[in-house]
Design a protein that fits this description.
Largest sheet: 5 strands, mixed, barrel
Number of helices: 4
Distance between the termini: 76 Å
Oligomer: single chain
Number of domains: 2
Structural class: alpha+beta
Helix content: 40-55%
Shape: rod-shaped
Number of strands: 5
Amino acid sequence: METVFLVCAITGGTLVVCLLVAGMIGFGGDHDTDHDTGHEITHDGPHEKGVGNWFFGMLSVRTLTSALLFFGLGGLTARYYGADDLAAFSAALASGAATLYFVATAMNALKQLKADGTARVERAVGCTGTVYLRVPAAKEGSGKVHLMLQNRTVECQALTAGTELATGKPIKVVAVINSDTVEVEAA
């Protein structure tokens, strides 16, 4: 039995290291594919969002190789401390299952760390910038301003209730009119 645990630990460890190295050089990326078959299938059975879908959603190369590694290590550790074959196998299964669960949970958590990169103009109130194209006085027309919004320079239409703002003048956003227009005043 120790030979089985040793082979699992060596195989799993080797594959985990290979996945780590492949990920560092760029071969381990997330490859989402979209398959549009044009068919609509509905399932009304009780298994639609059951244990099977949840379990198979956890399976990946990373989770399986990690589980294999810790299956072997758990069994070897149990045998080292004098456990019989059945207890060692139970410890190995528990180690492998726990590792599968924790690695799958960590991978799902990492997938949630995506950013869409959209600059949200509604967060512009209070931001400062400069006038790009003059802004006419008393909201008689619009000009353009450059704002520093979410660590990037954004160009927006601008209105002002005050006096005319000349090109290059520093401004401050006091209100957001719509998705691409802001109200500004001299800073």
